Amino acid sequence: MSSGRRRFEVDDHESYARPARRTRPRTKQRPRYDDATTGVVVTIDRGRYTCRVAGSPPDDGRNTDQASDERTVIAMRARPLGRKSVVVGDRVKLVGDVSGQPGTLARIVEIEERATVLRRTADDDDPVERVIVANADQLVIVTALADPPPRPRLIDRCLVAAYDANLDPLLCLTKSDLASADDLLETYRPLGVPSVVTRHDEELAPVLHDRLAGRVSVLVGHSGVGKSTLVNALVPDARRAIGEVSEVTGRGRHTSTQAVLLALPFGGWIVDTPGIRSFGLAHVDPNRLIEAFPDLDEVTKDCPRGCTHARSEPECALDEAVADGRLDPARVESYRRLLDSRERHTGD
């Protein structure tokens, strides 16, 4: 090729390079997406976001009507979003091809304000927060009563995360055909955490449907507790893989690899999440935990400045309220157990 010949032909796409930064017009006006389609992110896989469009859950998750044009749209994240993460449950604005036809790809250009955010860290020393799901209103802590045995400290940490995210907790105890639920239920009775008990050899109790109907619920639990079995019973066409518990370690094997938002046939939504081995709480301010217990929070107004309400505090008003009979000692002890769980470095 001679030095005087152009490197690219006129129709060569490489000839249309991005203009140099100095040639781009300066403006503070951001593009408007008034005609964008609104959808909800139902799952994420390798940079592709599966969104449910038309008939997606509204702000409160209580509209169960399925629109006639409901469809699934695959999208990518637009560059202007920068490092802003998109998570399951996000309500987003989509542009481009939102037909949902095979081979089409839309773009996520905006993320609507989140009502709630459930997050965790890998460890209590890890400063990096990992958002699990957005816009849920209930956290369902799934725990097996046997095979594998329950891990109360992990339950405690999940409760702390629920209270911090302003989610209503629900304790779901599975495999009651293998062990009694009485002891574990008594442990959490002082906290007033609602619970549901299920068996492998029976259909799901109607009370579980009642607790989930009309809500956006996140299911969390370590592998092998029967979470996928629950999901398949609640949403028959979900076809979530079911794992077994290792006889060597006593722990379950991971079967779910991505969080997924599923519509319940009787109304409402559930988010099935991968099994967890720990639940870091580095993002939780211990001073905020007391706000989830209005009766205790009211008493602590009489605490001296800087009181952490821990057992080691010499002049905590919680102790005075227990001594004069205003507070149930079991409830205060249960709250302090949750407070202690924030300081542990393991979810076991």
Q: TL;DR of this structure?
A:
Helices cover 19% and strands 21% of the residues. It has 348 residues and is α/β, with parallel strands linked by helices.
Task: Describe the 3D structure.
The chain is α/β, with parallel strands linked by helices. It has three domains: 75 residues, Nucleic acid-binding proteins (OB fold (Dihydrolipoamide Acetyltransferase, E2P)); 156 residues, 3-Layer(aba) Sandwich (Rossmann fold), CATH 3.40.50.300; 56 residues, Ribonucleotide Reductase Protein R1, domain 1 (Orthogonal Bundle), CATH 1.10.40. Helix content is 19%, strand content 21%. The strands form three sheets. A six-stranded mixed β-sheet has the order 10-9-8-11-13-12. Strands 1-2-3-5-4 form a five-stranded mixed beta barrel. Helix 2 links the parallel strand 9 and strand 10. Helix 1 crosses helix 8. The radius of gyration is 25 Å and the shape is globular.
